[in-house]
């Protein structure tokens, strides 16, 4: 099933927002005083970013390909596996 460009862009936007919220939230939890994760180590941050990538991949991978990292999109375009006309949007 093919989705419109607008639907794919919306999926990418929401997926990127989820990644940023979970990943940066994990960093804030480790670094800010008064949080339950204060003083934890890198493992909590890795799990936060890992979940932030996995959840959008499961939710939106079939819609947009889950290109939440612009470097991934550019790499696919350079290799000819993604149309250059859709890189900028």
Automatic annotation (TrEMBL):
Q: Which residues cross the membrane?
A: 6-30, 42-61
Subcellular localization(s) per the UniProt record = Membrane
Q: Which PROSITE patterns match?
A: MIP
This protein's superkingdom? Bacteria
Main location group: membrane
| Keyword vocabulary terms for this entry | Membrane, Transmembrane, Transmembrane helix, Transport
List the Pfam families hit by this protein, alphabetically.
Answer: MIP
Q: Which GO terms describe its molecular function?
A: glycerol channel activity
* Keyword Phosphoprotein appears in the UniProt entry: no
Q: Name one GO cellular component term.
A: plasma membrane
Question: InterPro entries, alphabetically?
Answer: Aquaporin-like, MIP, MIP/Aquaporin, MIP_CS
The annotated topology with respect to the bilayer is: Multi-pass membrane protein
Please report which protein family the annotation says this sequence is part of.
Belongs to the MIP/aquaporin (TC 1.A.8) family.
Name of the featured protein: Gla
